[in-house]
Design a protein that fits this description.
Helix content: 40-55%
Structural class: alpha+beta
Shape: globular
Organism: candidate division WS5 bacterium
Pfam families: Glycos_transf_2
Number of domains: 1
Protein name: Glycosyltransferase
InterPro entries: Glyco_trans_2-like (IPR001173), Nucleotide-diphossugar_trans (IPR029044)
Strand content: 15-25%
Radius of gyration: 20 Å
Keywords: Transferase
Number of helices: 8
CATH architecture: Alpha-Beta Complex
């Protein structure tokens, strides 16, 4: 298939799905590096007839987590869970059900894809994958995160990737704004501390794409928290680095 212009992710994928002949559709971004066993792991998950979608564990080039499932936050905005955490953490390597996974690397049963009418083409390079997953989820199928399928993703290199973020989110929230949040459920299941859960809640509140739309006075608490959060993040990294250096010195003596 060759188009004269970039039609966007949703339209392009729908075009490909129309001519695909297999039972399983695989969507894979062009800025990815697949790792050994990535495809076999996804296909194994899809052997369960109740499962319609399988999503990979995505890593940044530095090895930190980019995607380990998508959860709905308390502000009803979907976000990748455990973003930029270590890839070896136990809770990142649990195969389990989510309401959504990213389509940067996603396998889906073709008949189910057709049943829910594919990607919604109102979205332009954003949120169409979460929308698709929610449609599938509400049809009674499972959406499974498969950590055994590992893909390195050089995220958002394409030009104009985030130009329509706010419009896409408006479309999403109009359609799915009543979706029950489930992010905290996973933190509880994984035994995360109250401080961790509260920090995530505040980060989501003050770092979302709508925050700068608020009147300036209402932005003050968020800016103060952003400064505090960045300071604490830097302090933790400094302590970790300093402790590592101390450990090396003690070991070398």
């Amino acid at each position: 298939i060759r188009n004269k212009e970039n039609l966007g992710f949703a339209k392009g994928c729908n075009q490909g799905a129309q001519v695909a002949k297999g039972e399983i559709l695989l969507f894979l971004n062009n800025d990815t590096e697949v790792q050994v066993g990535w495809l076999e792991s996804m296909l194994e998950v899809l052997k369960d007839k109740k499962t319609a979608i399988a999503g990979s564990k995505l890593l940044f080039p530095d090895g930190l987590v980019q995607h380990a499932g998508v959860a709905i936050s308390n502000d009803h905005i979907p976000r990748p869970i455990y973003y930029r955490e270590g890839a070896d953490r136990p809770y990142v390597n649990k195969r389990r059900e989510f309401k959504a996974v990213t389509a940067a690397c996603m396998a889906i049963n073709k008949e189910v894809f057709k049943e829910v009418r594919g990607f919604d083409e109102k979205y332009i390079n954003g949120m169409e994958d979460v929308d698709l997953c929610l449609k599938v989820f509400h049809e009674g199928y499972k959406v499974i995160y498969c950590p055994q399928s590992v893909v390195v993703h050089h995220e958002s290199i394409s030009s104009g990737r985030h130009d329509k973020d706010i419009k896409n989110m408006d479309i999403f929230l109009e359609k799915w704004g009543s979706e029950v949040p489930n992010e905290q459920k996973y933190y509880k299941e994984d035994g995360r501390s109250w401080f961790y859960k509260k920090d995530k809640e505040l980060v989501n509140k003050y770092y979302n794409i709508y925050y700068d739309r608020k009147p300036l006075l209402l932005q003050v608490p968020g800016y103060l928290y952003r400064i505090f959060h960045k300071f604490m993040t830097g302090l933790i990294l400094f302590i970790k680095f300093d402790f590592k250096e101390l450990k090396i010195r003690l070991t070398s003596k």
